[in-house]
């Protein structure tokens, strides 16, 4: 008798794979009750912290400094014929200021998003200096009709003790 055992995919692994494939996210900030959405280049670390690089003069950068609560959506290119897959998250954002953490964020970006020369150029720009920002997610939802066709919404529980 031939029996096939199927196991559900690991939600954490699917989210990590998604983060590795995607490079652009929609970042939502808020100021005085008014929401704002911006596209930003991002990378994620093994703990699912999200880093992005942006000018300190951009509206979303200014708003993060006033209110650290953010949300984001990450979606790979799709067509209407594709089964939907994306990641949404919410968390707390901050400007990365520690030199050691800036170096870590820079290491993730180099070669994946920008070259070291581009990063240094943007950081040194006098009119629109760029800095790294970080989101510590408090909630992550994977919406994946490919791997979870019967229940595509998969909430990922974060281990906040180690963050």
> By helix and strand content, what is the structural category?
alpha+beta
CATH homologous superfamily annotation? Electron Transport, Fmn-binding Protein, Chain A
| Mean residue pLDDT | 91
Q: Which fold name is given in CATH as the topology?
A: Pnp Oxidase, Chain A
Uncertain runs are: 1-5
How much beta, percentage-wise? Answer: 35-45%
Number of domains: 1
Give the name of the CATH architecture.
Roll
Silhouette: globular
Task: Please give the share of residues in helix.
Answer: 10-25%
Count of alpha/pi helices: 4
The radius of gyration computed from the alpha-carbon positions, rounded to a whole number of angstroms, is 17 Å
What is the helix/strand order? HEEEHEEHHEE
Q: What is the distance, rounded to the nearest whole angstrom, between the alpha carbons of the first and last residues?
A: 48 Å
Strand adjacency order, main sheet: 1-2-3-6-5-4
CATH class: Mainly Beta
Number of strands: 7
Biggest beta-sheet profile: 6 strands, antiparallel, barrel
Q: Quick gist of this model?
A:
With 163 residues, the protein is of the alpha+beta class. It has helices spanning 11-21, 59-66, 99-109, 116-124; strands spanning 24-31, 34-44, 50-55, 69-74, 85-95, 130-144, 153-156.
């Amino acid at each position: 008798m031939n029996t096939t055992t199927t196991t559900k995919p690991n939600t954490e692994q699917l989210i990590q794979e998604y983060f590795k494939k995607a490079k652009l996210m929609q970042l939502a900030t808020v100021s005085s009750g008014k929401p704002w959405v911006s596209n930003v280049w991002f990378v994620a670390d093994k703990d699912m912290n999200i880093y992005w690089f942006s000018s300190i003069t951009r509206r979303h950068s200014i708003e993060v400094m006033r209110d650290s609560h953010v949300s984001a959506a990450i979606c790979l290119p799709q067509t209407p014929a594709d089964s939907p897959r994306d990641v949404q998250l919410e968390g707390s954002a901050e400007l990365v200021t520690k030199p050691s953490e800036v170096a870590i964020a820079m290491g993730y970006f180099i070669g994946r998003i920008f070259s070291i020369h581009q990063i240094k150029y943007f950081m040194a720009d006098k009119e629109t200096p760029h800095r790294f920002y970080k989101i510590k997610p408090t909630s992550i939802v994977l919406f994946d009709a490919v791997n979870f066709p019967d229940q595509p919404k998969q909430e990922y529980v974060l281990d906040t003790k180690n963050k």
